[in-house]
């Protein structure tokens, strides 16, 4: 594994928090946003397809 | 037409200026919208990306998602320097300022309660990985002489694997228990998909711990000690620490007991 720890926050750690954490505001006053679980599932599919072609979509 | 309102966080009023040159989501520097003694931190975002229908599509665009997530995070980070923000879920969008104000009024009591609970606290992320292969490779076994030999070797290999996973689970459970007893609160996130994290090994624990800023140093030392031990003990375990984060994982109302759903 890498000897030097990456200083930049890994996207996946960030998304754990941004898409699963935070206060959820529901109701007529917000625009209905994407269901987070769906986003994550789609993201998984998206990234596996990206990985097949490109070594690293967001650098390492 | 001045676009929609993207809300990052709610916080108490603060005196120190926000870091200059903060770009914010959609390149719009964050603005402070004050209402009933609370502040909503807001960017003006274009409908072409943030209205309901385009937003769905945009969230599935990895480049856009990455850029937006990082912009969101940079604003929350800047807020963390001057106050304790209560982060909202990514992509919380309102039609206009008055929509934001209505929301703040409706949620005022919740916000104040949660802000009080989180004041002076930060979140630390701890992940445990088990390497997929046991340390001593069972490949050294002699070539099976017969079918029975083969089955015996295979059974023993499977037992070794089972033992390893069991030890790994125990390690993760133990670490989570000891970190939880130190932290004020904890949350378990779903294990990360290796394709997404680009880490080797199986992610057994992906947890967040709420720790007072003042005692964070001891918490980090505790994790670092475990991390060092795993590097030399040949257990094939790896421990990773991230943070300090704003208390994203603790912004909701539910308690650890409700969200945990069992041990890792």
**Which shape of chain A, going by the Cα principal axes?**
rod-shaped
Arithmetic mean of pLDDT of chain A: 59
Terminal-residue CA separation of chain A: 12 Å
Number of strands of chain A: 0
What letter string, H or E per element, gives the SSE order of chain B? EEEHHHEEHEHEHEHEH
Radius of gyration over C-alpha positions of chain B, nearest whole angstrom: 23 Å
Instruction: Please report the number of helical segments of chain B.
Output: 8
Assembly state of the chains shown: heterodimer
Q: Quick one: biggest sheet of chain A? A: none
**Sequence stretches where pLDDT stays below 50 over 5 or more residues of chain B:** 255-264
When the domains of chain B are counted, the total is 2
Our count of domains of chain A comes out at: 1
Low-confidence stretches of chain A: 1-6, 49-60
Biggest interface: chains and residue counts?
A: A-B, 39 and 59 residues
Distance between the amino and carboxyl termini of chain B: 49 Å
What would CATH call the architecture of the largest domain in chain B? 2-Layer Sandwich
Write the layout of secondary structure elements.
The complex is a heterodimer of chains A (about 60) and B (about 260).
Chain A: H1 11-20, H2 36-53
Chain B: E1 4-11, E2 31-35, E3 38-45, H1 47-50, H2 52-59, H3 62-82, E4 86-87, E5 93-94, H4 97-118, E6 121-130, H5 147-182, E7 185-188, H6 194-197, E8 202-212, H7 216-232, E9 237-245, H8 256-260
Antiparallel strand pairs in B: 1-3, 1-4, 1-5, 2-3, 6-8, 6-9, 7-8
